[in-house]
Target: Chorismate synthase
Amino acid sequence: MGAEVKASGNVFGNYFQVATYGESHGGGVGCVISGCPPRIPLTEGDMQVELDRRRPGQSIITSTRKETDTCKILSGTHEDNNEIAKMYRPSHADATYDFKYGVRSVQGGGRSSGRETIGRVAAGALAKKILKLKCGVEILAFVFKVHQVVLPEDAVDYETVTLEKIESNIVRCPDPQYADKIIAAVDKVRVRGDSVGGVVTCIARNVPRGLGCPVFGKLEAELSGAMLSIPASNGFEIGSGFAVTDFTGSEHNDEFYMDKAGNVRTRTNRSGGIQGGISNGEIIHFKVSFKPTPSIGMKQNTVSREHQNVEFLARGLHDPCVAPRAVPVVESMAALVLMDQLMAHIAQCEMFPLNIALQEPVGVKYTRTPELAAILP
Amino acid sequence: MGAEVKASGNVFGNYFQVATYGESHGGGVGCVISGCPPRIPLTEGDMQVELDRRRPGQSIITSTRKETDTCKILSGTHEDNNEIAKMYRPSHADATYDFKYGVRSVQGGGRSSGRETIGRVAAGALAKKILKLKCGVEILAFVFKVHQVVLPEDAVDYETVTLEKIESNIVRCPDPQYADKIIAAVDKVRVRGDSVGGVVTCIARNVPRGLGCPVFGKLEAELSGAMLSIPASNGFEIGSGFAVTDFTGSEHNDEFYMDKAGNVRTRTNRSGGIQGGISNGEIIHFKVSFKPTPSIGMKQNTVSREHQNVEFLARGLHDPCVAPRAVPVVESMAALVLMDQLMAHIAQCEMFPLNIALQEPVGVKYTRTPELAAILP
Amino acid sequence: MGAEVKASGNVFGNYFQVATYGESHGGGVGCVISGCPPRIPLTEGDMQVELDRRRPGQSIITSTRKETDTCKILSGTHEDNNEIAKMYRPSHADATYDFKYGVRSVQGGGRSSGRETIGRVAAGALAKKILKLKCGVEILAFVFKVHQVVLPEDAVDYETVTLEKIESNIVRCPDPQYADKIIAAVDKVRVRGDSVGGVVTCIARNVPRGLGCPVFGKLEAELSGAMLSIPASNGFEIGSGFAVTDFTGSEHNDEFYMDKAGNVRTRTNRSGGIQGGISNGEIIHFKVSFKPTPSIGMKQNTVSREHQNVEFLARGLHDPCVAPRAVPVVESMAALVLMDQLMAHIAQCEMFPLNIALQEPVGVKYTRTPELAAILP
Amino acid sequence: MGAEVKASGNVFGNYFQVATYGESHGGGVGCVISGCPPRIPLTEGDMQVELDRRRPGQSIITSTRKETDTCKILSGTHEDNNEIAKMYRPSHADATYDFKYGVRSVQGGGRSSGRETIGRVAAGALAKKILKLKCGVEILAFVFKVHQVVLPEDAVDYETVTLEKIESNIVRCPDPQYADKIIAAVDKVRVRGDSVGGVVTCIARNVPRGLGCPVFGKLEAELSGAMLSIPASNGFEIGSGFAVTDFTGSEHNDEFYMDKAGNVRTRTNRSGGIQGGISNGEIIHFKVSFKPTPSIGMKQNTVSREHQNVEFLARGLHDPCVAPRAVPVVESMAALVLMDQLMAHIAQCEMFPLNIALQEPVGVKYTRTPELAAILP
Model:
């Protein structure tokens, strides 16, 4: 068993984007359409009529293979019919989704639903596996802060923290003592139907040097954009982040030194493993903040779609704190960014590999090719 | 019922691309991964373990909603186990797919299978519907040539040809007399297990003026790239195409004139409705050539994956001529290009609509806005 | 005078990207190449030989226009020859640039130089102008914090702060009293050759509702990625940002209400004008943190390219605090993101404008079209 | 001397695109803006005011380096003032450019000018150099047909034709005898102020196997889109192209065999070196048709921008046949596509190189890595 490539060049269009999937005898074929203007009346019949024109077995001069090719729209169509649809939940996507598309993102948020992250985590699992296989990259995230409970900076050793430690408790905090404090903090608001926010720290070990670009495509820019695309996130900081104002330049700079193995290293890592937009081989570490779940079991004032001031009380069960469940999503998005950047780096910079001396320490091993010899004597 | 937008900004990554789909309560959520390096060992279990970390109902401090989130890989994994996999079918993707990915595109062609076009046709149906709704665009393709049978240029009136006429026979040729000739030509090779190629003509009526770009994004370039991405296609020509060498410039130029309605029109349309990469409001017309189906019921020499010279006889049922079935695929790809370009045009050029005089004739109507007044007195 | 469009579809390629510019009789024609593998020996002669084959006036059967088309490489080639090139400046891009490309980013940082932002500011000026013209958008940034000096949250009224106020002092802080404190703080480190970091706040007024996307393309994700691509930035937060952990959900949610004008508004704006990745019509506000300039007038330990531990003392003149000069760059990148998102929104959602009731409040005015009538009775 | 990479991730935005260039001490810094809405009033002053805010040396607390950063708009602004601007030249971009942007592409065609191809040729020269260095790729184009003069298919040996042969005459036809015929044909129309079209053949030798993708990104699709983006081109065919209808499947299929060196080869190459969208290691060959130059020295009927029927007589000197000068542009665009695809291939498929047996014959040599050993025993 192996994952055959899903061929790249697999998305068509820039505005009205179509990604197709599936194989001749696989588990069905289909497409994902992105960017479609909203409120287009569409039924499966609209598509079926065209599919019927395409399918084989239509006549003696076509293949007589029997394929039904029955169209099924899995998602993307809706009916406005439930009560939630009638009012805008405070700090949810309901109102803005409606403002933009003129359709209520019903049924628990539509594309804005946290469930959308399932696809990210599935893809992230594959990216993690490849990064590990190629460079031994390890990506780990954990809960660093919830409400007023915050880990001391030295509570977690980035060099040695393990997945086991993180998964050893329900809030995914590698420090058992603080895990208990966080659980208590969450429980305190949970019982009264309220929620709290939190901060997740993510580290990536063994990331090869050289990932990222010096201008718009800085590695921290890619990571930041990926993290802020996670539902409920509202902040990102790489390395020392906003605390940077506590330092002067002479205090903050990461001085270089040669380690015993002959590698160029930095004594401190306030840059978070990235300098000038490019990874430097140190551990990459960043933080992401998450809002309190807006769905709470308490009455709130809001307005209805019909522009009436109304009171709203959320139904159903919600996380009193999303941070613990955000941990695997943060890891997945980090893996997707690093995988994307690793491929970009290989395409651009491994065509003529760098000289060994510079790259020896990194995960990727290089061989001295004739082409290289021709360029770098 | 209406198609809620599948939000754009819905594809993540540039090399390792992930498109997610699905909603909270829709028909499942998932992702399509493009660009993944081949031959990565992957099982559903690899993904399930991460999905389990993400899902709710894990503890008292998370939502106690019960969601199983069971991973199912629909396609993209394979096993090399059948006989076809052992030899490279002549002029199929077998060998090149293997050269590139190191995996045999088994099971009828994997991603190279003609069945992949199902996703294109489904998306094309939506694009057609929107283009019709917005501008009254009509896209029609038909079989123009098969083997030695070719329609006279004047056999089909681009202004009046209808879908009904095209669908009135099994080879999708709007001229009944030539349709019979084509059927006979196909049947002649079919009975001896051989196949023939053909040429499909596609026209688009009521395409607004102004679609396309003057440099790399010329409308004919977008259409050409789309058509050559259809399996078995090997040629594209817009307007007079390769026959252009029969003309001198003075014979070939499309002279402008003012029609009775006060529109700028061309007396001839050798440009095929596109000049300088941008649509001019005339009917867009182009041709696409298709190879004979490489799968034939005759013995052929080839080599096995083990590099042995062998004889190969295709199994199964195949189209003796793909052109008739390619017709809806050609229309669909044309619709995807025009839809993409219409959105691009609206984004760039309808922000401050052009003055009415110039645009009156086109499908899109414009209003004179205050912003416009400020710019174009 | 007006800016003729630089046609979109103006960048060719996905990995080896080429953007061309210039016109027949303009100020020269040329190209910008991105993604080129490093360390390729290249001279203008390599290009001239091909240009000479293309140019007119070569023979009687070509145009006899005289065009010299002399090749000039403006940037991108280098020589390693100065002293700085020999050692890696701490917390600069020197080392990582060298790790990635195998070339020292000499001459003040090459593409990593702060001077690269000139192109961003020039483009941002155009984006600002268009946003203002189309929707009355106003983008303003100012220095919020430097070292230990931080403005009280209520010191600046986002509704009324003006460019004049911001530009009234050399540190671009709209509060004169705090401006003096900041100047003092900067001066204190400047005199001893040290530097300090700072935080810049950016606001955008009159941003239309509906900009952004619900999934990967969330507006805050686009803004975050843009801000972290600015040299020396290392943190981004939208709305309440990392301070979000100070609130419970019931305290943090932005309740909706109907204002006197009949608009859906929020009483608070902790979301920073964006909910579910889409702008809600409130003022967009976010913060960006900047590191202390790594170039300081003090001895630092580092290593040379030859892997020797050495001491380094920066030459030249550097900003003791980059925050004030980062202000127009932050505004420019915000303008580029909003302009890009406005075009995306118009392409997707103004094809069939939303009903007036929902969109009335926003900057963009809509008319009820026949198409809309057909969809939304 | 070497070309330092122009970092990728160097283009910002998807609709309003900005590419920046230049370095700290290089030949100036700047940006290229693509996709800008047309008719925006813009002066250098609009940009200068922002640049002045950004530049150093503004005060004691900023760097006191003196940089003027004077804004210069090289192209993209215009004035409608000459006579040509008043009428639409038949089959030029004048009318469509005006329809789309509401500005006359004056001064010889603006962005539609053939001079824009200078940027393509310069970039193509670099791509050619890298392809040659990495894989020994040789890209050669030549004139195959002009008006009624057409080379016999066997007149040029794709294996041995050289640049010298092609450049040995002014029409770039490697067959001296036919070159003379072509020169005569061109001269015949030139003397009476008319023009003729032509067809250019392009071949690429030593292209590695495996370039391209199986779905939308087929190599022939990328090549086709690139060729149709060249001014005046109106047709593309790969391999047998439109002549494919002359063959049956049994006649057209390229049978595989093992050559003496143990390579998988095809006896014929009607596929043009690409099968299933992916290169197969045979010589890639395709044809591109070009219209007669629309600018002719003969009176033509057309309309003015004021919608009057008028007569037009072109001024200036023009190519009676563009094909010979299109040759280096065709080669350049082919080089840009192959370079882009090579990088895509390396990113995706060389992360874990294929086993040697399969790839031995291709230009790129592979080594068996530990990672590979782990996957392919």
The two ends of chain C are 44 Å apart (CA to CA). The first helix of chain C runs from residue 44 to 54. Chain C touches chain A through 129 residues (CB under 8 Å).
